[in-house]
Specification:
The protein has 18 helices and no strands. By secondary structure, the chain is mainly α. The protein has a single domain (20-472, 481-518), classed as MFS general substrate transporter like domains (Growth Hormone, Chain: A, Up-down Bundle).
């Protein structure tokens, strides 16, 4: 039995996925996209919150607070309670990426990609069972905890692989994969809405069936991506800087550079995710009736209120688009400008835009306000995609996946601080009697100040001292036939790109249609 098991899993071994001579490195990005587009559904989970609050038609809300909801089977959950699922898997994402980053480097991207697929897809299936049995604690265990582990493993698995295959275009390479995470909601949200409508029974929404279907679909696609990974051989790396100095992961986190970059990511994400979390209500609060061409203080009937809400919903699709495409754009730009200069642009331009948002709102310049929010969210996504290349520049490529896993704990922290900060300040302003159109002014100024802090941290980042760098054997010398020279993609490569390209294009089209209604 043991021999059979060894044979069954032998294909997952790191030693079995070294690429043959002539392997085309452009087969790796679609494998990475297949994984990131699936776990990127994390950003689209908001489509489930409202349906999950009326799973039992006519039932009252659960009593006993949050703990009562975890086990109550004959009452409906509340929106604040189910939204904690998002916070859970984002927090677990960062913690699992930090805990298992070294393991991912040791076992290679195929084995870790398979585990990520089983955790994320399997977590959704357990979550479906929790919805079916109406046990909120089971949904948290499946989608939140187990799914969060799949999120963390899936997020970092492609990073070091792409950086090794594209030493000449580190930013662009990681931008491809992490663009998929930003675009996962473009594809997953409409699919989830369609599935819920397809499996709904009268007034009861089809949440459990939608969870189960997504779990199966994502498992299949992520397994396909995992088995598509290859590692470059020494011949593929000939002439590159892949064998230059490295900092061990256990030493990296003790350096000032590590904590400065942690702070850089925290500031960028806190500011961006705060706007991402409150984009729709912020647009409604700031502009209200003006979105329909009416006076700001005009009384709205129910139909007009619904039209305002629909316009604001279009903003969510638009900023999701900029969040996704900004990841590839800014990461590719960083290959030309350098990582520090790119992050400096994020912070300087972002601080200016945050400071300008209240002014644009008071003047009623809705189009300029929306454009500023879209640019801000493009830089939010760009911060994620540029980070792995920044880490590789500072710490070398050998342990970059593990180091990246530890740094993105800043994302977990920011995912809690950002939304809580903007929602708490909004409520405090409302309680103080501040008009809705002005409740975000102070918050946006705070976000601008936070980006200035991030700018200072970024400017303080320095290259590693030579004595802290480990040295590997020199890389093979480049020849006329070895340096990333490769055959064409072939039919399999074309199919791989179509498998990720077609769903992304459909999601892109849907987002553009929503944006057209807004504009």
């Amino acid at each position: 039995m043991a021999e059979g098991q060894a044979g069954l899993f032998a294909g997952l071994d790191r030693s079995r996925i070294i690429a043959a001579p002539g392997y085309n490195r452009w087969l790796i990005p679609p494998a990475a996209l297949a994984i990131h587009m699936c776990i990127g559904m994390a950003y689209g989970f908001s489509v489930f919150w409202l349906p999950m609050t009326h799973l039992i038609p006519g039932a009252a809300a659960c009593g006993g607070g949050f703990w009562g909801e975890l086990t109550g089977q004959n009452c409906n959950w509340t929106a604040p309670s189910v939204t904690h699922i998002f916070e859970t898997f984002i927090a677990v994402l960062g913690l699992s990426a930090a805990a298992f980053g070294g393991w991912v480097e040791r076992v290679g991207p195929r084995r870790s990609g398979v585990v990520a697929a089983l955790c994320w897809g399997g977590g959704l299936l357990i979550g479906a069972l929790g919805v079916k049995l109406h046990l909120l604690w089971l949904v948290f265990l499946g989608a939140g905890l187990i799914g969060g582990i799949g999120q963390g493993l899936g997020y970092i698995t492609p990073v070091s692989t792409l950086i090794r295959w594209f030493p000449d275009r580190r930013g662009m390479a990681t931008g491809f994969a992490i663009m998929g995470y930003g675009g996962g909601a473009l594809v997953g949200s409409p699919l989830a809405v369609w599935l819920m409508a397809r499996f709904a029974h009268g007034p009861s929404p089809g949440v459990a069936a939608a969870f189960a279907c997504l779990g199966v679909i994502y498992t299949v696609f992520m397994l396909g991506g995992a088995f598509g990974f290859r590692l470059p051989s020494a011949e593929h790396l000939a002439g590159s800087d892949a064998a230059s100095g490295h900092v061990h992961v256990n030493e990296a986190w003790r350096t000032p550079q590590f904590w400065l970059l942690w702070a850089v990511l925290f500031c960028n994400v806190t500011a961006g995710i705060a706007v991402l979390a409150m984009a729709s209500p912020m647009l409604q609060d700031v502009f209200g009736a003006r979105l329909l061409g009416l006076r700001a203080d005009a009384a709205l009937d129910p139909a007009q209120k619904a039209a305002v809400a629909a316009s604001a919903a279009g903003l969510v699709g638009l900023i999701s688009l900029f969040n996704s495409l900004g990841r590839l754009f800014w990461a590719s730009i960083s290959d030309l400008l350098g990582r520090k200069a790119t992050y400096a642009a994020f912070f300087i331009l972002g601080a200016g835009l945050y400071a300008a948002l209240p002014w644009l709102g008071h003047l009623g310049l809705a189009f300029a306000f929306i454009a500023a929010v879209c640019v801000i969210l493009s830089m939010y996504g760009g911060g994620f995609s540029t980070l792995p290349a920044y880490l590789a520049d500072i710490f070398g490529t050998r342990f970059v996946g593990a180091i990246h896993g530890r740094v993105i704990t800043a994302w977990s922290a920011a995912g809690i601080v950002g939304p809580a900060l903007i929602a708490g300040l909004r409520q405090a302003q409302l309680n103080a009697g501040v008009a809705k159109s002005h409740v975000y002014d102070g918050t946006l100024d705070i976000m601008a100040g936070l980006l200035i802090v991030g700018l200072i941290c970024n400017l303080l980042v320095r290259p590693m001292a030579p004595e802290k760098m480990m040295r590997d054997d020199p890389a093979p010398k480049a020849s006329a036939t070895t340096p990333m020279a490769a055959r064409g993609l072939g039919l399999g490569g074309v199919v791989a790109w179509l498998m990720v390209g077609i769903p992304f294009a459909v999601g892109l089209l849907i987002a553009l249609q929503k944006a057209a209604k807004l504009l």
